[in-house]
Structure prediction request, 865 residues.
Amino acid sequence: MAEKEFDTGGFDFSEVEKRLGVTRRTFLTFCAGVAGSLGLSTNSAMAMAKAIAQPKKRPPVIWLHGQECTGPSESLLRSEQPSLEHLILDMISLDYHQTLDAGAGHKVEEIKKKSMEENKGKYLLVVEGAIPVADGGIYCKIAGETMVDLTKEAAEHAAAIVAFGSCAAWGGVQSAAPNPTGAKGTQAVLPGKPVVNIPGCPPNPANFLGTVLYFVTFGKLPPLDEQNRPKWAYGRLIHENCYRRPHFDAGRFATEFGDEGHKKGYCLYKLGCKGPETYNNCPSLEFNNVGGGVWPIGVGHPCFGCSEQGVGFNKPLFSLADVKTHTPPNAFPEIDDRSDASGASTGAVALASAAAGAVAGATLVTARKLNSSDDGSNSDDQNG
Amino acid sequence: MTRLLVGPFNRVEGDLEVNLQIDEGRVTEAWANSPLYRGFENILQGRPALDALVIAPRICGICSVSQSLAAATALRHAAGITMPENGMLSANIAHGAENIADHLTHFYLFFMPDFARDIYADQPWFASIVDRFKATVGTGAAQWLEQRRRLLHVLGIVAGKWPHSLAFQPGGSTKSIDKGEKIRLLSTVQDLRRFLETNVFADNLDAVTELTNADALFAWADNHPTGDFAQFLTVSRACDLDTLGQVALPLMSQGAYHNLEGSLFSRGVFDPATGKRNSVNIDAFSEDLTSTWMQGATAHPANATAHVDADKDEAYSWCKAPRLNAQPVEVGALARQVVDGQALICDLVRAGKTHVQARIVARLIETARLVSAMEGWVKALKPGMPFCEEKPMVKTGTGSGLIEAARGSLGHWLAIKNGQLSHYQIIAPTTWNFSPRCAAGVAGPLEQALVGTPVRAKEHDPIAVQHVVRSFDPCMVCTVH
Prediction:
C-alpha cells in the first residue's frame, strides 16, 4: 500500500533493504513520514529515499563534545523506526565521536585532524555540549586543547555546523546564572558562521535526523527561524499543539501533583508549564518511541522549557509562563492564586508577545553559503 | 622510569586522562584527571528548592534517573514526605531499567570492544570476540542496542522521556500507571529477560544467580559456552583479569531499590582485608580538595564550600577526593553485591582484593537479579491508587539523598532557606572511584588499582590500562559536575 502512493520509477531499493535491515515499505513509509513532518511533498520523500539509497558520497562528520552529558547522543542511540542511529551512521561517515569511537587516545585525535584536512569545506560539524570561555577556556579540555579552540578549528572549514542540544545551541544548563565557567553556545563563539540550532535537553533525535536528511538530500539546510532553528521542528509553541490545551481554554487546571485536577489530566499551566513560551514539536513527536502520550506533559509534568533560551534552567520550574499567543480570557480563575508560585504576575502573563512567527534572513544566508559547496540541486520547496 | 599520558579516553562517558609513571614494564604510580568542570553546585544555589529536580539530572545523560532520584530523595528528606507504595515502585522500575541499560551498554559497547583489538589477534578466542564485540561492527552490540531501545520504553511509560526525565518528585511520581501500561511494562521486562537468557547468559537467570563460587561459575561457563557472558569468562581466564586492577579498599553501598519492607540490596561497608561488614556512617564522609583545582577546607558535604582556583600548583584534577573515615572507598555494582552478601561475588574477592574480573561479573549478576526484581515491582503496581503524596515543599530545612546509581553511591546534600537552596553538594560514584590524592597523600581507588598494571614495549595507549580504567565504568561528567 505505502509503496503504491509513490512513483518509485522502477527504482531498485533491494540494496538499501539489505544495508539498513528494513523492508522497502518500512523504508519508504519512513521517508514519507520525515518529508511530511518537514512540510515537504511526496516527491521530496522520493528524493530523500533515493539520496539514502544511493549516496553520492557520504558527507564526513566531525562530532565534538564540550561541556555536556552525552544526553543528545544517548537519545540518538535509543531512536528507532528504522533505527535512526543506523540510518544516520549509514548516511554519514562519522569520523570522530568521543563516546562511540573504537580507538583510543591520541590516535583518534590524529584521525580527526586528518579527516578535517582531507575533507576541507565538505564535512558536517556537529557540536554537542556548551563551550566554556571563562579564564581562557580551561574548564573543558580535550587532549590538552580547550573546547573553544577545538570548536573554532573544526568550524573553519566545515560545510555546515549543527549545534545539537540546548547546551550547544545556547549554553544550556551550565550557562544558567551565575554561569561559573562562562558557558556559551556554538553560535556565540563562532560569530559570522552559520550554525543550525537543534535545541532540547535532550533534543528529539528526529529533529536532528530530519535536518541531516534534508542536508544529505538537497545539499543545503532546511528553512530556519530567527534563532537558526529548523522551522519545521520549532515553528510552533508547545502550547499550540498540546493535547491539554482545551483544559487551558476552559480554565481547568491542576494546582498540585496528585490533586483532583492533576488526576483528571487538566492543564499544567498553574504548575509552571512553559509550553506557552517554548517552541518545539514535542506534542506531535513525543519521546522514547513508545507512543501513547509519552512526553513530559503526557506524564503529568509541566514543560519547563528545556529547549528555549531564557526559559529552561533560567525561569523557576513552578513560576507561571509568559503566554506568547494570547491572553487567557477574563473568565479564568485568578492565575496567581497559587501562594508559592513566584515570579510572574497576572499583568506579566497578560503581555502578549509579537515574537512568534518572525522571519529573518538567516535561512537565505545559510543556504547561499552552503550552495556554494554543493551541486546546486534544490528541487524541493516548502509548498511541494 | 618513564612518564606516559594516556587519554583522552574514548568510550567512557565524559573526558578523562590518566598520567602514568612506568618502570620496567609496570605502572608504578598513576594520577587520574578529569579535564571538565561545569559548576552545578554553584548554579543550584539561590534557586527555588524544587528547581533541583530539573537542574541536577542534567549532570548526566546516561544516569539522569539516578541524579533525579537523589535530588528527589534529598528534598523528600528535607520536607519529611513519605511516598505512597506506587511511587516507590515506579522509581524502582525506572531506576532498574536505567541501571540495566548502563550495565549492558558498558559490557557491549565500552568494555568488551578492547578485546577485539589487533593486539590480541594471535589469541585462540580472538575471532569469536571480533564477531560479537568489535567496535561499531560487532553483532552483539547491534543486538544490544536494539534491545536497549525496547528496554527504554519502560522509562518512556514511567517517566515521559529519557534521558532527563521529569516525573520524579519528592512525593512520588507525576505519572499514574494504568492497567494497560502495567501490562506493557511487564512484557517489556520479560522481553529483556529473553534477551538475557538467549544472548547474554544462554541459560535461565535463576541458574546464573544461584552460582555460589568461582569454580561453579567457570564450570557453568564451560556448559553454556555460547552466551556472551561465557565469552567474557573465557577471555578473563586467558588474560588473568582476576590479577588485573587489584585494589584492597573498603567497599561501600547505600542500599538500593526501597519498598515498604526494606530494600532489595542492603546498605553497608565491607572491608575485604578483614571480611567484615559494617554499617555506613554518612557523618564520617568528607571532601578533600588537596589535589583539586579548588580552595576550601576538608569538610562534610553538608557543610563543604569550594571556590575554583585553576592556578593551584599541587592540583591535577577537577575531581574532589571524597573519603569515608578519611579513607578512599570503592563503589559500584561489585560493592553493592558484596555488601549484599551475594555468594558468588563475595567468593570472587575472597583473597581480599577487588579486580577487573569481579567488577565485570558483578555487573552481569546484578543485571540478572534486577530483572527478576523488576518483574515483581511491575506486578505489585496498583493502578488507581495514588502515585504521589501531595505535600508542599518546606521553606526551611536540610536534607540528604543517598542512593545507588549504576556506578555506585551517589549523594546529594542540600539546605533550604526562605524556600531557596542555600547549599548544594554532590558526591557522585566516579568521584569516589577516580578520586585524586588527599592531604595524607593517599591515592584514589583507580589510582591504586593501576599500580602494577603491565605496559608492553612501545605501547602508547596500554591495553591493560584501558581494561582497568574501563572496569570501573567511569562516568566523568557525574564525577566533576
